[in-house]
Amino acid sequence: MESKGSRPKQPDWLAEVCQESSIHGMPYIARKDLHWTERILWALIILGSAYYAISSCLNQWYRFRDNPLVYEYEYLFGLRIFPFVGITLCPTYHDETVIPRLINETWGLDASKDKEKAAYYRKFLLAINALRYSTLETLEPFENDTTLDNVNYLNILLTLQKKIISVKNPAELAPIITEVGLCQTSSQLTRYGNPYGKLETLDVEPMKQCGYFSNCITSLKPLNSIVAPIYMYVHDVEEMMLPTTCELPIGMRKTSNPMISMLC
Ligand SMILES: *[C@@H]1O[C@H](CO)[C@@H](O)[C@H](O)[C@H]1NC(C)=O
Ligand SMILES: *[C@@H]1O[C@H](CO)[C@@H](O)[C@H](O)[C@H]1NC(C)=O
Question: What residue ranges are annotated as transmembrane (predicted)?
Answer without folding.
Answer: 40-62
